[in-house]
């Protein structure tokens, strides 16, 4: 599980949405002016229940037209959406990797089909809640980036520990090999080593 903030609660027309800030992730894309670009995109995880399980039977489920629904999704934030030549502009909030058994779920725990009225209602409720959360917590993106660099620091520290362990193993091997070579050296005439020196 990625490190993340304590979940915040935001009210929606259909129920509560729990929002947790996740670590940023690298996003690579091609820009017509800048060429190939890699930048950090802050991320958020949302769910209709506090356990983030997309469980429509949970007490914190959403209710739309009398039916229970659940949400568990990750979103990536793009502060500067690209506008393409055909006039299409990217959204600020873009769904990311859907958690296992996540996404938008109906009362039978089946995925809500894309491009249906219910899906559109749920997506709008989520993005509106995310906009509200971002307005109330203007530093959330910085915290997401902080989590990213903390994660990188932790990975680097693990590599240092592994390298130190490898160094200790190598030093132990050097000592063992020195003992083995020294034991053999004591039983050999010096002429061998004189010859070795001449060849060198």
Structure description:
By secondary structure, the chain is an alpha+beta fold. It has one domain. It is built from 3 helices and 7 strands. The protein has helices at 117-136, 140-186, 190-199; strands spanning 8-12, 15-31, 35-47, 62-64, 67-77, 93-95, 103-105. Strands 1, 2, 3, 4, 5, 6 and 7 form a 7-stranded antiparallel β-sheet that branches. A hairpin with a 2-residue loop joins strand 4 (62-64) and strand 5 (67-77). The radius of gyration is 29 Å and the shape is elongated. The termini are far apart. The model has no long low-confidence stretch (mean pLDDT 87).
Task: Give keywords.
alpha+beta; 7-stranded antiparallel β-sheet; 38% helix; 3 helices; 200 residues; 7 strands
Short summary:
The chain is of the alpha+beta class and 200 residues long. The chain has one domain (8-152). It is built from three helices and seven strands; from the N terminus they run βββββββααα.
């Amino acid at each position: 599980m990625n490190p993340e903030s304590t979940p915040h609660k935001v009210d929606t027309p259909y129920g509560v949405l729990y929002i947790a800030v996740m670590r940023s992730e690298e996003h690579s894309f091609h820009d017509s002016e800048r060429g190939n670009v890699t930048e950090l995109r802050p991320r958020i995880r949302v769910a209709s229940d506090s356990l983030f399980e997309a469980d429509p039977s949970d007490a914190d489920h959403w209710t739309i037209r009398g039916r229970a629904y659940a949400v568990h999704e990750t979103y990536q934030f793009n502060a500067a959406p690209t506008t393409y030549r055909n006039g299409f502009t990217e959204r600020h909030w873009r769904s990311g990797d859907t958690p296992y058994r996540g996404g938008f779920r109906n009362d039978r725990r089946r995925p809500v089909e894309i491009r249906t009225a219910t899906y559109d209602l749920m997506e709008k409720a989520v993005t509106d809640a995310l906009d509200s959360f971002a307005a109330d917590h203007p530093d959330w993106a910085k915290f997401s980036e902080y989590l990213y660099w903390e994660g990188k620091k932790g990975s680097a520290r693990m590599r240092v520990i592994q390298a130190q362990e490898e160094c200790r193993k190598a030093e132990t091997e050097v000592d063992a090999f020195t003992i083995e070579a020294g034991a053999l050296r004591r039983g050999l005439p010096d002429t061998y080593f004189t010859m070795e020196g001449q060849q060198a």
